[in-house]
Structure formats: C-alpha cells, structure tokens
TrEMBL record:
<dbReference type="InterPro" id="IPR051677">
    <property type="entry name" value="AfsR-DnrI-RedD_regulator"/>
</dbReference>
<dbReference type="Pfam" id="PF03704">
    <property type="entry name" value="BTAD"/>
</dbReference>
<dbReference type="InterPro" id="IPR016032">
    <property type="entry name" value="Sig_transdc_resp-reg_C-effctor"/>
</dbReference>
<dbReference type="InterPro" id="IPR036388">
    <property type="entry name" value="WH-like_DNA-bd_sf"/>
</dbReference>
<keyword id="KW-0238">DNA-binding</keyword>
<dbReference type="GO" id="GO:0006355">
    <property type="term" value="P:regulation of DNA-templated transcription"/>
</dbReference>
<dbReference type="InterPro" id="IPR011990">
    <property type="entry name" value="TPR-like_helical_dom_sf"/>
</dbReference>
<dbReference type="Pfam" id="PF00486">
    <property type="entry name" value="Trans_reg_C"/>
</dbReference>
<comment type="similarity">
    <text>Belongs to the AfsR/DnrI/RedD regulatory family.</text>
</comment>
<dbReference type="GO" id="GO:0003677">
    <property type="term" value="F:DNA binding"/>
</dbReference>
<keyword id="KW-0804">Transcription</keyword>
<dbReference type="InterPro" id="IPR001867">
    <property type="entry name" value="OmpR/PhoB-type_DNA-bd"/>
</dbReference>
<protein>
    <recommendedName>
        <fullName>OmpR/PhoB-type domain-containing protein</fullName>
    </recommendedName>
</protein>
<feature type="DNA-binding region" description="OmpR/PhoB-type">
    <location>
        <begin position="1"/>
        <end position="100"/>
    </location>
</feature>
<dbReference type="GO" id="GO:0000160">
    <property type="term" value="P:phosphorelay signal transduction system"/>
</dbReference>
<feature type="domain" description="OmpR/PhoB-type">
    <location>
        <begin position="1"/>
        <end position="100"/>
    </location>
</feature>
<dbReference type="InterPro" id="IPR005158">
    <property type="entry name" value="BTAD"/>
</dbReference>
Amino acid sequence: MEFGLLGPILIDGQDCTALLAAAKPRKVLALLLLYANQVVPVTAIMTELWDATAPRSAQTTVQTYILRLRKLLATVAGCSPQQVSRELLKTKSSGYLLQVGPGALDLHRFDQCAAKGRRALSVGDNESAARLLDDALECWRGPALVDVPAGQLLDAQVTRLTEARLTALQQRIEAKLRLGYHHELLGEISALTTEHPLHENLHAQLMLALYRCGRRPDALEVFHRLRNDLINELGLEPSAKMQRLHQAILVADPVLDGPQRADGLAVDYIFRLGQLV
C-alpha cells in the first residue's frame, strides 16, 4: 500500500485507490501520515480539528474517525479492520500510530532523494545531483495536501513542505546551470521569479542563465526589477552577493561565461545556493 501527501491525499492499494470524502477524517489521515511511524497524540488531533473550541464529544469523535480510517485501509489492503488496528493503524496510550513501510509514502521518497541530491551537489557531482533532484520533484503531484482544509498544525506543515520543494527546485536548477543547461532552464526560472518576485536566489539564477544565453541587457533588467520590488515592498536594497553578481554582469566578468570544470566551482565565489538568501 502506498500513501501520498504531495498533492491530493492518496491511499493506493494493489487493486484499488481510496478516496476520503469527509474533510475531518482527511485531516486526521494527513496528520498520521505527516508523522508516520510516530505516535500522534489525541490532543494534537483535537487541536487540528477544532483548535481551542473542541466539543465535549471530541475524543469520541476522534475515535469514530479512526474507526472509519481503519475500515477504509482494510478495504484497500484486502484485510480486516482488526488486522489494520494490529499492524497498520495502531492505538497507543496517548494517541495513534500509522505504520508506513520504507518507500511507501511520497514524502519519505522526496526527502530521501532530495537529501542525496544535496550531498551530490555539495561535492560537485552535478549529473547525479540533477538526476536525484529530478526524482525528488517527480514525487509531487500538486501542492501539498491540496484537498485537505488545513488547521493550525497542518498549515505549518504545508508551509514547510512548500519551502522544501522550492529549495529542491533551486538546487536542481543550480546543478543544471553548472552542466550548461541555461537555454533549457530560462522558461522555468522566469516563471519561478514571477511566482516569487522577492526571492533573490531565483533572480540570481535567472540573471546567470540570461547572461550565459547572450542576453546581458535582460539579465541587468532582472536585477533592476528585483531592486525596485525590494525597495517598494520591504524598504531594502539587494544583498551584497546580488550586487556583486550585478557588477560582474555589468563588466562581463569572464568567470560568468560558464563552468570551466565539471563541478562548476568557477562561478561559486559569486553565486552559490544558500548564500544569496
């Protein structure tokens, strides 16, 4: 059985895929999956479902939702609800634990591939980094928990997952820029800067890609647009690293022409993920 959080919530069995129609049971399942193989306290479930206004019947209602989930999981797994309660969705002293096998949750696969990709990028293995980060991003089927109405706890987790995906995107772009794919990346990076108009690192990646495509005026225009937005929205000038990249483009510094080595270190003193923002 496989589960999904990176998009609409998903329970996928060998012979069928299950859908949860009701919002509150979806919230409970989302919490159990986010903390898979860990005990989720009943108090945390109640906070997510009702915040500070839990009814007197809240604990009984949570038990009802767990019973529904066990029946659903039993249908997908082709076993009894009793077996599910023993082996999959277990009752613990303070809450509930959903047992998820290795590789059965898309979030776990994403985290593992992204971590391997980061390690490859850090040692200059750019081809492996690009491949692993592509694999990580393919785990996403849409915005995280897009069909789950997020409460206090889930909202924080959705924000965390969204940031993790954006970081993986930037790292994949960096790996591919190091490999010389600046032409192929232009459309994607341009769309990301439109979506994130104050994000310095994405703008730096776009500037570098444009410069390497022979579009120096456009690269400079990206900087000026970002600077205006930062001043108007936040009252801030671009960071020192962004300004150094701008200056390097102004003077056509040869170090920006493209990586001279397989690890791309020729451009790292000006441009490196994590040092711009």
